[in-house]
Design goal:
The chain is 48% helix and 15% strand. The protein contains 17 helices and 13 strands. The chain has a 7-stranded parallel beta sheet, with helices on both faces.
Length: 403
């Protein structure tokens, strides 16, 4: 009998972001292939799925503790943490008692929960794979190099989210020769086709802005330094001030929210640059469906951060945006330079001017926007459908599980 897979995902729905979406797509498609046992996640679940998700519960009586005084919040945390640790212990004991040897795929290895699990998996000799995204390699190599070398050596398989991530691993962890697999982030095209997207008027009401007659430029991402949204704002400043029919909408939350808000105000762009916060999938994809250009000029943070791939570029391309990103990390694999979008050297001193030049070139040539948008859409459909990606991975992993 073929062993089944447990996916340990510290980033999983209802969390947003690339790693959480990666975990969900992986689980959903492995389940469709009949080789998923369960997902184990610390994230309390609001929905049910077609596969089993083991997660702590938020009982109705617990909810009243969430936003109360300090002691009640501490009690809420204590109940949650105790529940999570009991689940972990029970799961390991259950596998041992029934003499099972499941295969565990661990996503986002640098979380405390993942570290506990990997320690237990090595202690009881359970086979496991680790998924690496880029920043996790940098953090683990800088802070816990020996531990990272050890778990990478003991892993049965290392899964990378891009060729660039695999190369980064080779540079920071030289000498480790392991079986590896490139599993790109990908899109559930059927899900996207079935979405009931918001109209232009509905979006305008949500954002409190009249979008009629506007050319929309968008960014959708976690607002952190690496994403380069500050570069995007500065590069758009002269363009926006010259053309009042262009609007730039930034969707997302993060540590850079307030600094970006201050930058927008300081440049007198608050009438044309909207920082709208975080929304659900329907609103996010409605924005991408409305915009014509998507920009996320990602860049290295002095070697301390890394854009492993950038699924946002695929989402934007699918909805027929010309995409603009940094010429670094796995983004060079998500954007077909000169065809679906443009790659810019965002680490150069001329980055802002280079981005402005690209945008001006597009704005001066509507036919080019349409041509590249169509190419980008087809490029995603042909190369980054989750069904195709997980089909290939499933065949690969099933060969291992049968050994």
């Amino acid at each position: 009998m073929t062993r089944k897979i447990t996916v340990l995902a510290t980033d999983f729905k209802p969390m947003l972001g690339g790693v959480a979406e990666y975990s969900f797509q992986l689980a959903e498609k492995l389940n469709a292939k009949g080789i998923l046992d369960q997902v184990f996640t610390p994230n309390i679940q609001n929905e049910t799925y077609t596969f089993k998700v083991a997660a702590p519960k938020e009982f109705s009586w617990m909810k009243s503790f969430k936003n109360k005084n300090f002691l009640k919040r501490k009690l809420y945390s204590l109940i949650y943490i105790s529940q999570l640790k009991l689940m972990e212990i029970w799961q390991i004991k259950n596998w041992l008692y029934h003499n099972q040897r499941p295969f565990i795929i661990v996503n986002w290895i640098i979380s405390p929960i993942s570290k506990r699990w990997i320690t237990a998996l090595n202690l009881f000799h359970f086979p496991y794979a680790i998924i690496l995204h880029g920043k996790d390699i940098i953090v683990a190599s800088q802070n816990e190099s020996q531990w990272f070398t050890d778990i990478s050596t003991k892993a049965k398989l290392i899964i990378f989210n891009s060729q660039a991530t695999a190369i980064l691993f080779g540079k920071l962890q030289p000498g480790i020769e392991k079986k590896s697999y490139i599993l790109y982030p990908s899109l559930d095209i059927n899900y996207l086709r079935q979405l009931n997207l918001n109209s232009l008027e509905d979006l305008g009401q949500l954002f409190n802005y009249d979008l009629k007659g506007k050319l929309v430029i968008s960014s959708v991402c976690r607002l952190i330094k690496r994403k380069g949204i500050d570069l995007a704002i500065r590069s758009l400043e002269p363009i926006l001030k010259r053309n009042k029919d262009i609007i730039y909408i930034i969707m997302g939350n993060g540590e850079e929210y307030q600094p970006l808000k201050s930058l927008i105000v300081s440049l007198n762009l608050d009438s044309q640059v909207l920082l709208v916060g975080e929304f659900n999938d329907t609103v996010k994809f409605s924005l991408l469906n409305t915009s014509s250009i998507f920009i996320m000029p990602n860049h290295y943070q002095n070697g301390n951060d890394f854009e492993g791939f950038g699924i946002s570029f695929l989402e934007a391309s699918y909805f027929k945006n010309v995409v603009i990103g940094g010429r670094n990390g796995g983004v060079t694999e998500a954007i077909k330079d000169g065809h679906s979008g443009f790659l810019v050297d965002t680490n150069s001193k001329d980055a802002i001017e280079s981005i402005s030049k690209v945008i001006n070139n597009l704005l001066d040539n509507s036919n080019l926007i349409n041509q590249m948008a169509e190419f980008g859409h087809q490029y995603v459909v042909d190369n980054f459908q989750s069904t195709h990606a997980i089909d290939a991975f499933s065949e690969y992993i099933q060969d291992y599980l049968l050994q």
